[in-house]
Specification:
Protein name: Glutathione-dependent formaldehyde dehydrogenase
Cofactor: Zn(2+)
Helix content: 25-40%
Low-confidence stretches: 257-266, 280-285
Family: Belongs to the zinc-containing alcohol dehydrogenase family.
Keywords: Metal-binding, Oxidoreductase, Zinc
Number of helices: 12
InterPro entries: ADH-like_C (IPR013149), ADH-like_N (IPR013154), ADH_Zn_CS (IPR002328), GroES-like_sf (IPR011032), NAD(P)-bd_dom_sf (IPR036291)
Distance between the termini: 10 Å
Number of strands: 15
Structural class: alpha/beta
């Protein structure tokens, strides 16, 4: 089969690889009909290269048709249409029972002291083959896959794999008061959906991004926007009675613009040989923290910051005096996808499309075009916000 494989820093290619096979009774084989490129995939493309191996199949936002199931899989069968959550979780361990599927004790990657395995996401998360391919093996298919109707375009359901539950959790963690204000930093796919969910839940949402096309997409959904290159902290305070927003979602993460020293450090580590680079990131890695600093400065005293953008540094400097003095609450973490399925499936299935899932994709391309789409997405060219690949 064809699959998108990681070959090196800023280098991915389509290769012929062996077809996946059932390996465990809890596996399923799914023929992929749509698979999206996530902003987190760009971290593999640029920053997390020391944890990647040449030939890794990447991608963690797939859906498709079940072709085969293992003997222990009962809730789906061949022919079913399913969305595959990006985290691999068993559904029955202590963490899964707490609704923390991203911390699943069955699939935790203890070699790196990280949480549950993820599809297509480096040694840090288990080196599980991902979904930017014609077929994929789905581990723990006795729990993870989300069965969806056969009607409607894939994009109505595809984002249940990551984007919609991640954004829902981000807003839930931000916990604005009833009728309160929510600032969303970054208008990539997660930021777009966080802003729409915040508005759907009745909050005043102010979204921030330097890219005009991204602000325009948010404005189509009734979101107030600000250009992040123009004194955004002061603008946010001016718009919220001088106090700052009640809550802030950081949907940017480790590669935020403006942190030039940290950016240079990330590039240097990425050029080291993999074993040395891994060790450097594990003990001394730093992130570009401009978005998080903005969130800390902008949120009102006693407010909450929800971090959904991925961070990976182990030596990040934080303004603890400011955070303590302002009594800031922080919530963060990878999304626990299956915790939100029952809440979100009716919303994406609603013909009125209350979350605007049918207005997120900006580019559709065949799997063969994935390498050029990665480059376009990273460089924010051609209004690229969300790419869906069709194997």
């Amino acid at each position: 089969m064809k699959a998108l494989t990681w070959q090196g820093k800023r280098s991915v290619s389509i290769e012929e690889v062996p077809d996946p096979q059932i390996q465990e009774p809890t596996d399923a084989i799914v023929r992929i009909t749509s698979t999206a490129i996530c902003g987190s995939d760009l971290h593999l493309y640029e920053v997390l290269t020391p944890f990647m191996d040449k030939g890794d199949i990447i991608g963690h936002e797939p859906m498709g048709i079940v072709e085969e199931v293992g003997s222990a899989v009962a809730h789906i069968k061949p022919g079913d249409r399913v969305v595959i959550p990006f985290n691999v979780s068993c559904g029955h361990c202590f963490m899964c029972r707490q609704g923390l599927q991203s911390q699943c004790e069955t699939t935790q990657v203890r070699e790196y002291n990280t949480g549950a395995q993820f599809l297509g996401y480096s040694r840090l998360y288990g080196s599980v083959s991902g979904g930017q391919a014609e077929y994929m093996r789905v581990p723990h298919a006795d729990y993870g896959p989300i069965k969806v109707p056969h009607t409607g375009e894939d994009e109505r359901y595809l984002y249940l794999s990551d984007v919609v539950p991640t954004a829902w959790q981000a807003v839930h963690y931000a916990a604005p008061p009833e009728g309160g204000s929510l600032a969303v930093l970054g208008l990539g796919p997660i930021g777009q959906m966080s802003a729409r969910i915040g508005r759907h839940l009745g909050y005043r949402v102010i979204a921030v991004d330097p890219v005009a096309e991204r602000r325009a997409m948010a404005e189509r959904h009734g979101i107030e926007t600000l250009d992040s290159s123009e004194g955004v902290v002061e603008q946010l305070k001016d718009l919220t009675g001088g106090r700052g927003p009640d809550s802030v979602v950081d949907a940017v993460g480790m590669e935020g613009h403006g942190s030039h020293v940290a950016g240079a450090a990330q590039k240097a580590v990425g050029l080291l040989p993999s074993p040395v680079g891994r060790q450097a990131m594990e003990v001394a890695g730093v992130d570009r923290l401009s978005a998080l600093y903005t969130a800390i400065d902008a949120v009102r005293r006693g407010g909450t910051i929800s971090i959904s953008g991925v961070y990976g540094g182990m030596k990040d400097p934080l303004p603890m005096l400011t955070m303590f003095d302002k009594q800031i609450q922080l919530r963060m973490g990878q999304c626990n996808v299956r915790s939100w399925t029952d809440t979100l499936l009716p919303l994406v299935d609603d013909p009125s499309d209350p979350l605007g899932v049918l207005d997120l994709k900006t580019h559709t391309a065949p799997l063969d075009a994935a390498p050029e789409m990665y480059e376009k997405f990273q460089k924010k060219q051609d209004g690229c916000i969300k790419v869906v690949l069709k194997p």
